[in-house]
UniProtKB/TrEMBL annotation:
<keyword id="KW-0472">Membrane</keyword>
<dbReference type="Pfam" id="PF00213">
    <property type="entry name" value="OSCP"/>
</dbReference>
<keyword id="KW-1003">Cell membrane</keyword>
<protein>
    <recommendedName>
        <fullName>ATP synthase subunit delta</fullName>
    </recommendedName>
</protein>
<comment type="function">
    <text>This protein is part of the stalk that links CF(0) to CF(1). It either transmits conformational changes from CF(0) to CF(1) or is implicated in proton conduction.</text>
</comment>
<dbReference type="InterPro" id="IPR000711">
    <property type="entry name" value="ATPase_OSCP/dsu"/>
</dbReference>
<dbReference type="InterPro" id="IPR026015">
    <property type="entry name" value="ATP_synth_OSCP/delta_N_sf"/>
</dbReference>
<dbReference type="GO" id="GO:0045259">
    <property type="term" value="C:proton-transporting ATP synthase complex"/>
</dbReference>
<keyword id="KW-0139">CF(1)</keyword>
<keyword id="KW-0813">Transport</keyword>
<keyword id="KW-0406">Ion transport</keyword>
<comment type="similarity">
    <text>Belongs to the ATPase delta chain family.</text>
</comment>
<keyword id="KW-0066">ATP synthesis</keyword>
<comment type="function">
    <text>F(1)F(0) ATP synthase produces ATP from ADP in the presence of a proton or sodium gradient. F-type ATPases consist of two structural domains, F(1) containing the extramembraneous catalytic core and F(0) containing the membrane proton channel, linked together by a central stalk and a peripheral stalk. During catalysis, ATP synthesis in the catalytic domain of F(1) is coupled via a rotary mechanism of the central stalk subunits to proton translocation.</text>
</comment>
<keyword id="KW-0375">Hydrogen ion transport</keyword>
<dbReference type="GO" id="GO:0005886">
    <property type="term" value="C:plasma membrane"/>
</dbReference>
<dbReference type="GO" id="GO:0046933">
    <property type="term" value="F:proton-transporting ATP synthase activity, rotational mechanism"/>
</dbReference>
Amino acid sequence: MKGARPALRYAKAILNLAKEAGKETEVNDNMKLIVETIAGSSDLDSMLKSPVIKAADKRKVLTALFGDKVNNVIKGLFNLLEENKRMLMLEPIAKQYSVIYDYYKSMQVAKVTTAVPLTKELEAKVLAKVEEITGNKANIENIVNPEILGGFILRVGDVQYDASISNQFNELRREFDNSHYIPKI
């Protein structure tokens, strides 16, 4: 991914500034808002990536768009990106910030794939189990995929536990395929 290293450097610097101000959680929320807003607006994404639009104009748009919704650390980032003519890096910086913030807070993302959305009660049970197993706090990301038929697939970091019905069917199919049973005709 082009620009990943500079984005990581910017994100680390912003985290250090936010820690000094005691606002790292607020900055993380602001970064998530920025990522969601850019992902939700193709016009904003195109404007940030456009080489024709001046960096000062891009900063003005961002300041008008986010205004009171973001804190001074983020406004300083807008100014810095304008000075360095790196406005197109705003989204990668925001994504990298969230990643290193989660690492700083010993947070993991537990991706739970289910056939139907998780209820709050079930989500709390999964969170408790993940924290018990890993020893770290976690955020749950529920992915709904009706193709798994039932059960769930839990992925935390690089560990995956597949308790889906579709996986059980596949295992059963492999078992029948590998058996040496010859039926009588």
